[in-house]
Amino acid sequence: MFLHMTMKAARLLLPAACLLWMTGCWSRVEINDRAFVSGMYVDVSEESGYEVSLGFPLSNRLSSGGSMPSGGASDGNPYAIVSKRAGSIPEAIRKIRSDLSREISWGHCRIIIVGTKMAESGVDPILEFVTREPNFHTKSYFLVAPGKGKDITELTPVFERLPSEVLREFAERKVTLDTSVKDLLEAAARGGDAAAALLTIGKVKMVSEKGKLSTWVGTDGAALFKNGKMVGTFNVQEMRAALWIDGKMKSSVISLKSPTDGKTISFLILNSKSKIKPVVSGDRIRFDIRIEAEDDVMSSESDIDLNDPEQISKIENLLSQQLKGRIMSAIQKTQQMGIDVFAFGRYIEWRYPKVWYEHQDHWRSTYKNCEFSVVTQVSVKRTGVEKNPIVRQMQRQQGGSR
């Protein structure tokens, strides 16, 4: 009898339990009610603290086929930029949210741009907001604008549909530093020394925009941070040296003067790798840096015989010396400023934890006196089938046939 009643109760409760799975989530926001942030731009506002600008793609103006869907403005951009000023970053975002017909969603934001003044005043308020926003990706790239971050929103995205996609591609293609929010958070835990990509901006006439004067944005050097505040910059060569040290240099072009006639030879870097080894000997701390790269001859204006192993060896030595000089220049600049933007201190912490314990409280002053041994080895793998410039060969052939 008891077993019968138990089975009967189970049959009644089973459908009720199944209905619980069909109730859905009470806090869910439908996708049609979301505004997806594609980029975040932050500046210091003299009037009210901060100015925050958010970029949003406009779904009613986006089309996979490239044509404008019905109902969208035929001459409008497929994105919008909304800006607000407030005494804090969360308050500015709240004001933006109040003016939108949709709920803000951070899941697609991959770019944070800050103006120079914001970078100089300190990026800690941005990191504070990002770490407390659960839907914000810490892998989002962090870049610095030469003026105001908001000015970057005016760029004309010729090859992409959104301005933020242009900036994201700069970092992903390794044409500049790919510093992320995660990198800045890790740097903050070590004292706040870091380097981030620096942009450049200007006005040019674009054929794609029917010759109109349009905003163009490109990559420049790097912004250097100490205690989370921008204190200096790298030029382009020093920024690229940072890519070499981190082992992130890809598909770059490097040129030098031929050892035979001083004419230009250009090389395409195929791949590179770096190795950093700390060495502690008594009170001396040294870092041994070894960088290897493979190059292809891209073009040559010189009469140098590229099939001669001796000449190739001379070229490889020149390339290696040039690379070593650029890397040492970047390192010495950070030593003079007393900022370990390359995080060499991590290698001491990993390899010599006791030594790190002794120096961590005054690492910046210790870093100024560290020694560096840089060994670079550049190999020219492919020179092509032509040993001399093709144009000159044609000119000689024409001259001989006259």
Topology:
Layout: H1 2-20, E1 34-36, E2 39-45, E3 49-57, E4 79-86, H2 89-98, E5 103-105, E6 111-114, H3 116-121, H4 124-132, E7 141-144, H5 163-172, H6 181-190, E8 194-206, E9 212-226, E10 229-234, H7 236-245, E11 253-257, E12 264-281, E13 284-300, H8 309-337, H9 344-351, H10 353-359, H11 363-368, E14 371-382, H12 390-401
Parallel strand pairs: 1-5, 2-6, 6-7, 7-8, 13-14
Antiparallel strand pairs: 2-3, 3-4, 8-9, 9-10, 11-12, 12-13
Instruction: Bin the strand percentage.
Output: 25-35%
Q: How would a crystallographer describe the biggest sheet?
A: 8 strands, mixed
The residue fraction in helices comes out at 25-40%
The span between the termini is 118 Å
CATH architecture assignment name of the domain at 237-397:
2-Layer Sandwich
Question: Rg from C-alpha positions?
Answer: 28 Å
Secondary-structure content class: alpha/beta
Q: How much is the average pLDDT?
A: 85
Q: What is the number of helical segments per DSSP (H or I, 4+ residues)?
A: 12
Task: Describe the structure in your own words.
InterPro entries: GerAC_N (IPR057336), Spore_GerAC-like (IPR008844), Spore_GerAC-like_C (IPR046953), Spore_GerAC_C_sf (IPR038501). Pfam families: Spore_GerAC, Spore_GerAC_N. It comes from Paenibacillus validus. Strand 12 and strand 13 (284-300) form a beta hairpin. Helix 7 packs across helix 8 (309-337) and helix 9 (344-351) crosses helix 10. This protein has twelve helices and 14 strands. It has a domain at 237-397: 2-Layer Sandwich (GMP Synthetase, Chain A, domain 3). An eight-stranded mixed beta sheet has the order 4-3-2-6-7-8-9-10, sandwiched between helices. Strands 11-12-13-14 form a four-stranded mixed beta sheet, sandwiched between helices. A two-stranded parallel ribbon has the order 1-5. With 402 residues, the protein is α/β, with parallel strands linked by helices. The chain has helices spanning 2-20, 89-98, 116-121, 124-132, 163-172, 181-190, 236-245, 309-337, 344-351, 353-359, 363-368, 390-401; strands at 34-36, 39-45, 49-57, 79-86, 103-105, 111-114, 141-144, 194-206, 212-226, 229-234, 253-257, 264-281, 284-300, 371-382.
